[in-house]
Design goal:
With 235 residues, this protein is α+β, with helices and mostly antiparallel strands. The protein has two domains: 134 residues, Jelly Rolls, CATH 2.60.120; 78 residues, Winged helix-like DNA-binding domain superfamily/Winged helix DNA-binding domain (Arc Repressor Mutant, subunit A). The protein is 43% helix and 22% strand. The strands form three sheets. It has a four-stranded antiparallel beta sheet. A hairpin with a 5-residue loop joins strand 4 and strand 5. Helix 4 crosses helix 5, helix 6 packs across helix 7 and helix 7 packs across helix 8. The longest helix has 27 residues.
Length: 235
Amino acid sequence: MDRNPNPDCTLCSVRPEIFSDNLKPEALAVLSMKKSCRKFKKGQIIFHEGQRAGGLYCISHGKVKLFKTSYEGKEQIVRLSKAGDILGYRAVIGDQPYSASAAALEETHICMIPRDELLRHITQNPEMAMSLIKFLGNELSVAEKRMMNLAQKSVRERLAETLIILKETYGTEDDQQTLSVALSREDLANITGTATETVIRLIADFKKEGLIDTSGKKILLKNVRGLINEGNIHD
């Protein structure tokens, strides 16, 4: 299906909450005119770690990974994003370079709101500023939880949790079991914080135990409750 590469913010069905609830229609219309939109192919870089923040990115369609690169060139995926998510907000607000790189996991459409335009709307809309503060607080909590899991959970637990997070983030296909995202084993390792060879071995173990099945890069979750238990995931 063809998608509008330059959607009208006032009609966007995946408009981020900070814009949906805190801007009057006329202000949203102005924001829509000021933004620029672009289509990215699978694997294409949206912005680079260390690049000066020019604006806030909104995903209107597609999937994105945010990752940091070590001095040795190894990736660590720090966040997975989908349509309706925003990227680069901390760098924009703090007037700092982007702290991670972003790349498309599939064909992805992105809208970029220039930094000056975004800050003008935040200054003129206290409710929007408060909504953004709450959003940042929630993201910090998620980041702290991830750091704790990396430090305290085994690799097996982390991989099981990663599969559940992928289900919660991207959902499943029509069969209600196959993850609606195709990631390489290397990407799974970069999310989990381990070696690719370890992920390959654990996936084979999960298949033998009836927790999952695979078809190429596609992963079918056969026993979600079992993965939750394996990941030691608590509500």
